[in-house]
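User: Could you check the structure of this?
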Amino acid sequence: MANTKKLTREERKTNKRKARGELKKLFGTLNRKQRRELRTEPQGLKTFMAKLEKAKAEKAEKAE
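Assistant: Sure, the predicted structure tokens are below.
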């Protein structure tokens, strides 16, 4: 976890809101099937997206 002791409460709150907004945008890029799959998986959104990108890259590599 990041060291936030040197930040003020307002700075921490601002950073947290920004991070939440970024995750919401990322979640908005998923289609219904992917959202359903994400709910069944134990990991978080960033890990799930990395998994999708890896699978996409492998599929593209296999197609070549």
